[in-house]
Amino acid sequence: MAAEFPEQFKVTALAAGRRIERLTKQAREFDVSLVSVEREEDVAVVRGMLPGVDVRWGSEGLMEVALSQGVDMVVAALVGAAGLTSTLGALEAGIDVALANKETLVMAGQLMTAAAGKSGASILPVDSEHSAVFQALAGHDAAEVKRIILTASGGPFFGRSLESLKEVTPEEALAHPNWDMGRKISIDSATMMNKGLEVIEARWLFGLGAERIAVTVHPQSVVHSMVEFVDGSIIAHMGVADMRGPIAYALGNPSRLPLSGMALDLGRMGSLTFADPDFETFPALGLAYDAIKEGGTMPALLSGANEVAVEAFLSGLIRFTDISEVVKMAMNDYSPVEADSLEAVLEADSIARDRANQAVKNIRP
Amino acid sequence: MAAEFPEQFKVTALAAGRRIERLTKQAREFDVSLVSVEREEDVAVVRGMLPGVDVRWGSEGLMEVALSQGVDMVVAALVGAAGLTSTLGALEAGIDVALANKETLVMAGQLMTAAAGKSGASILPVDSEHSAVFQALAGHDAAEVKRIILTASGGPFFGRSLESLKEVTPEEALAHPNWDMGRKISIDSATMMNKGLEVIEARWLFGLGAERIAVTVHPQSVVHSMVEFVDGSIIAHMGVADMRGPIAYALGNPSRLPLSGMALDLGRMGSLTFADPDFETFPALGLAYDAIKEGGTMPALLSGANEVAVEAFLSGLIRFTDISEVVKMAMNDYSPVEADSLEAVLEADSIARDRANQAVKNIRP
């Protein structure tokens, strides 16, 4: 996006994990003055490859990138909990965050939105569903919103029975009908936990209770999400399934960038269908709603437990239908506490992993 | 709407044609101080039925209603050209107009939008397609609009060939698949001239050239219209097909009114389809685009000629497929003039009727 629209954007600093080649290539392309890597051991190599560039590492390096001179937007796209501290730091400093990381709001939605509210920073969603809601809400009075309706592809097992899902293999579950994704998110899509996590994110992004966030199964992924108003009007965002759309909207906000190759051919796209989600076959979705209602650190617990369960399924330790079972067992009898600090959130994540690992052991044949 | 939301609205004056019973009933219900009827001969009767109410008649009466003390919105729902003068008067006086009359913008769009622009009055569309576009545009930058896409039910003959439409009877053409309408508008829906007239209205309401107004055939009438932006995003308005929605949006603007019974059941509405319009089978749509491109008084001519042609079809004088033929013949060799006065517009309407009647005579077996 920055390469396509050099007039609009200037990349000033970059952070990466261990993909050093890619980092140095992008650092040269955008002529940045600061980069950060995950591990100290990579610093010397990167310094050698990027003379004149300030090279940092670890969570302090991330924070320096997020808060570096002249930054007016941070694109938060690190995987997992790694970016929580720096994202919170940016929001506290009043810097807008384009958010492509799910854990940020699932685990620490209360903290993040409170920080943004206090500093006046915006959290701009980069995934297609929340971007769609964001765009559908623009120009309308939030007090007139009846509910938001997130669309879900339904995953590869939409229409199947719970019983028939017991013998599903990782290979089957990784085959997403509409697009290629990472392994974790593909499984989350198949269990519909992915949509559950999005419901939790929506709860924070749009400040609505769980009862005002609905999900509809729309396998064609043309309608990216909708907002229903008190007069029955539904404002929907439609388009091709291409992440360039939501990325451009978050970066360009409040302006839209003229993107090529994004035109939806209405006359040739086939028919659009919508169905109510099946909470019985896909219990993960219901667990996410439960987590919102329980509140506090319960969503963080759900997220952490789900990561363990998905990994256990991919490793062949548990069955597909056990994924939700593990999450449910982890949530069972857990008493959430206030999610008012990153420590509380990370502690819940840690408890989640212990509980989920124990549940996997109990289930494993 | 005024009866349902007495806190929001106060009806102060009413105008009617010859339906005296209904006028007096409504005048009592809303305790209005001024009414106007079409003909002088009805004035005495109405005065007798509404003691203490000021009763006027004719086009002067209409104008007095439109400009009466304390009015901040005129609902223009008279049929045909009768309301042109008073609607223009209201707009010139800076009074917002909720527009439910098609001829106003088709015949005199240039005049009306110029008057509104000068005085700062708003024209609020009351039909579902334009209301949908209006709602989809809210909060977005007009400069970022690529095109608007009006949805069309396609009428009862969607999917048929031109040849097969030659023997269509008025009874067949009057059977609209989705809802009951008046006879004229039912035939316009069957020929798709209805959509052509809406394209002309959209040209004025939204200030876009014909090349930026598209039509898609969507028989389910769930998506009421759409706006496509430069980034490929499409913002659509969806809902049940109930005129209470657009009426409430026009009257309540910028607030939405909480309407009951308007919720769309996504899970049960069936699949949604979209198809490109068939300009060969439904030439009326193309004629409307031609009229916009010709400009000036050509749309007024098209509208007038179409009225005559529809009447001739309903009277059994011409075939269904001759309706567009008559309009085309009327447009042929007509040189439009500037539509910069109501006189010019009404003159074009008169020429249209002469030309169309002549065309009917030429066609009639």
What does this protein structure show overall?
Two copies of one chain form a homodimer. Chain A is α/β, with parallel strands linked by helices and 365 residues long. Chain A has three domains: 13-125, NAD(P)-binding Rossmann-like Domain (Rossmann fold, 3-Layer(aba) Sandwich), CATH 3.40.50.720; 128-278, no CATH class; 295-365, Orthogonal Bundle (Rna Polymerase Sigma Factor, Chain: A), CATH 1.10.1740. Helices cover 44% and strands 13% of the residues of chain A. Chain A is built from 14 helices and ten strands. Chain A has helices at 20-30, 43-49, 58-66, 84-92, 102-119, 128-137, 170-174, 183-191, 193-205, 244-252, 283-294, 298-314, 322-331, 342-363; strands spanning 13-15, 34-37, 54-57, 73-76, 96-99, 123-125, 145-152, 213-217, 223-229, 234-238. In chain A, the strands form three sheets. Chain A has a four-stranded mixed sheet with strand order 8-7-9-10, covered by helices on one side. In chain A, strands 1-2-3 form a three-stranded parallel sheet, with helices on both faces. Chain A has a three-stranded parallel sheet with strand order 4-5-6, sandwiched between helices. In chain A, helix 5 links the parallel strand 5 and strand 6. In chain A, helix 5 (102-119) runs antiparallel to helix 12, helix 9 packs parallel to helix 11 and helix 13 (322-331) packs across helix 14. The longest helix of chain A is centred in the last third of the chain and has 22 residues, at 342-363. The N and C termini of chain A lie far apart (48 Å). The model of chain A has no long low-confidence stretch (mean pLDDT 94). The interface between A and B is large, with 48 and 48 residues.
